[in-house]
Design goal:
388 residues; alpha+beta; Aminopeptidase; 2 domains; 3-stranded antiparallel β-sheet; 17 strands; binds 2-oxopentadecyl-CoA; binds ligand EN5
């Protein structure tokens, strides 16, 4: 069934439940001298290119490939539309390798037809911190699908990760592959219910009118928590401490240091928003919430072309109840004109989803590790990792 994935060091379906297999790397690293020195062969009309995301022109090409060919929902009504600024942020974290931003071009026209990326990350699995690549933005142009290009791209990114002496990876997908460490549910909180219904993102509930629905999702104009404010550069040390302490309770999470927090959590307009609660009395930073901006193109609607979505990222509550903190996140997201606030059922999110009027979506997100076995599938609440 999985001609490619059967050949890879990932948990295989036949091994599910086999307790004799140990946790940890599936295969050991090979000496760097034994890593293939030349790129894998592509079908002859195509060639490899390393994408320089500093270049406005290359960034534009990547943006357009993804805008037209990246992930859609199961009814092809919406397609992710990552912005250029977002792509630059996602692909240039501390210690990134340009060689992991891999494109495929048509030799004759030089048109960009496929893409895959990795960025380095330290991921903690129980009490081991493992250097990994986070793989994302795998995309093959719609006209070149089902030609087995994806396995070649995955092997090539694997080779380039190995050249940096890194032997594990983490990735997510909407499709089932061998073998998820956990499967998360998407939840959606309407902020602009009229538009969501007009574009087919959501439906009017049974026995609900439009005006009752608008009233149901109404939010206050201002956050309720005293000391709730935008995160600033000076907050990086305190936020790092808060987040490291919080994430340590999950089975799998990133091992963020101050540089990572500055990159991944310091607010960047239209990319990442972060808020915290500074105690008005002690000036301690006690709580934190964040969300990233990922619009989707609305395919074939007369009135609207973009759905503005916020995605819950990392949230930490020590003093403010998580429910109240996330209600404040909804309030600021609404003020910033987001149409919907999305979240996965990871970490402690289940404690606020229903009460804050999130509803389950029709999409799931499967989490995977490459070359690292985990004994049993995790509960979603044991997962402390959000990928973009
Ligand atoms: S998930 C988003 C993936 N992208 C999209 O869904 C965009 C729209 N679709 C496409 O562009 C986030 C194509 O359909 C793609 C497949 C390119 C998806 N992950 O070329 P063929 C990520 O970016 C397997 C992994 O003929 P295609 C994470 C499939 O099972 N494998 O298909 C990426 C089959 O193998 P099998 C996937 O439709 C993680 C083979 O590809 C997959 O023209 C990558 C068929 O290839 C997916 N999302 O192109 C893995 N979708 O064994 C990283 C399909 O079943 C691993 N396939 O026969 C770690 C590497 C680094 C290790 C470092 C130590
Ligand atoms: C790697 N970083 O299916 C990501 N989205 O539910 C790659 N559904 O938006 C993998 N189909 O349920 C991504 N509205 C996998 C996800 C791909 C995109 C996807 C789903 C997630 C989604 C929406 C729209 C469905 C349109 C028809 C959905 C219902 C919302 C409703 C609001 C009111 C309360 C009940 C729920």
């Amino acid at each position: 069934k999985h001609k490619f994935w059967e050949t890879q060091p990932v948990g295989q379906f036949k091994d599910v439940g086999d307790t004799s297999l140990p946790e940890g790397p599936i295969e050991p690293p090979t000496p760097l001298s034994e890593v293939k020195q030349e790129p894998y062969n592509l079908p002859s009309p195509y060639e490899w290119t390393t994408c320089d995301m500093d270049s406005e022109e290359t960034c534009n090409e990547v943006y357009n490939l993804l805008k037209n060919n990246y992930v859609e929902d199961d009814e092809n009504m919406f397609r992710f539309n990552y912005s250029k600024e977002f792509l630059r942020w996602a692909l240039r974290p501390p210690g990134y390798y340009k060689s992991w931003h891999i494109g495929v071009r048509a030799k004759t026209s030089k048109k960009l037809v496929a893409f895959i990326t990795g960025v380095p990350a330290r991921i903690r699995v129980r009490d081991e911190v493992v250097k990994m690549a986070e793989i994302n933005f795998l995309c093959v142009h719609k006209k070149l699908r089902s030609k087995r290009l994806a396995p070649v791209m995955i092997k090539e990114v694997t080779r380039r990760v190995h050249l940096e002496n890194i032997w594990q990876a983490a990735y997510t997908a909407g499709v089932v592959l061998p073998t998820p460490i956990t499967t998360c549910q998407y939840w959606h909180r309407s902020l602009n219910p009229k538009k969501l219904i007009d574009v087919g993102f959501s439906r009017l509930g049974p026995r609900m009118t439009m005006s009752r629905t608008i009233k149901l999702y109404k939010l206050p104009d201002q956050p309720a928590t005293p000391g709730f404010r935008k995160m600033e550069l000076r907050d990086v040390p305190a936020v790092t401490r808060l987040l490291r302490n919080y994430l340590s309770q999950f089975v799998v999470s990133p091992d963020f240091d101050e540089n990572d927090v500055e990159h991944w959590l310091l607010p960047t307009e239209d990319v990442i928003d972060s808020y915290l609660v500074e105690s008005p009395k002690t000036h301690d930073i006690t709580d934190f919430c964040s969300f990233y901006t990922l619009p989707s193109s609305i395919l074939g609607n007369q009135n609207y072309s973009i759905l503005k979505a916020a995605y819950s990222y990392y949230n930490v509550s020590t003093k403010t109840p998580l429910l109240q903190l996330m209600n404040d996140a909804l309030i600021v997201a609404k003020k910033k004109d987001f149409d919907v606030f999305n979240a996965l059922d990871v970490m402690h999110n289940e404690s606020f989803l229903k009460e804050l009027k999130f509803g389950p979506g029709d999409g799931q997100l499967h989490y995977y590790l490459y070359n690292y076995r985990i004994q049993n599938a995790l509960r979603t609440s044991e997962l402390g990792l959000v990928l973009l």
